[in-house]
Amino acid sequence: MIKPLHGYNFGTVIPFLLLHAGCVAVFLVPFRWSLVWLMVAIYAVRMFGITAGYHRYFSHRAYKLGRGWQFAMAFLAETSGQKGVLWWAAHHRVHHRHADHDPDIHSPLKRGFWWAHVGWVLSNEYDKYNPALIRDFGKYPELRWLDKHYMVPPVALALLLLLSGGLGALAWGFVVSTVLLFHGTFSINSAAHLWGSRRFDTPDDSRNNFVLALITLGEGWHNNHHKFMYACQQGIRWWEVDVTYYGLRILNWVGVARELRGIRRPLSESEAG
Length: 273
Known about the structure:
The chain is mainly alpha-helical. It has 13 helices and no strands. It has one domain (13-262). The protein has helices at residues 13-22, 33-59, 67-78, 85-97, 108-111, 113-122, 135-138, 141-148, 152-189, 210-215, 222-227, 243-253, 269-272. The longest helix is centred in the middle third of the chain and has 38 residues, at 152-189. 41% of the residues are buried.
């Protein structure tokens, strides 16, 4: 554990900065297109862990998993390096309770773009969370262990890539894809509350953004999500690409994900498009 300096704990900041600096390693290894595709594949799989796991499952309970698959989804999500599963989900539930109002932990309207994007993650103010907010999943000892030891999954992935593919696989597959995951995920907190269209008159300033939806496998339909936050599906119109939902439909067909929650009320013609 890295000790606090003058009251500030650098335990999150140092790995965050080192990963960004480590991106220069791609210029120190021979370039191969296979490494680029490895980065894209690992980015996509881990983004699915974030969107289907951290967000739609642990934060919103939009579908059900068996206990073993629940642990696997949490482990996959934590390979992203975005702290513990209970920490992530508890803070996200706070966001939805107070979205774009004063208690919102990462509102760009109330606290500025930088704070919403990454400042709140690096701040010591939110190192902890209220266990009462995530009591439904906090009752599982394996999830509490994983939440406490949240560095285990990303380190395990990094070692696997290094041992199987060398420094090139580590640089592209882990370092670059992790940094891209950071900013792809964080863009939903920041950019998705500033730029895009609003189909629904929600009490926050959430936006639908096609580009962000592509980057985050469907999370960019953020206004849709804030209107129907319990729903597993975030893309409503046929052209609103929601890769996470497509993946969950496949997991449902094979019996892994169960009881996918849909939108409860009929949409008007203008809403459904």
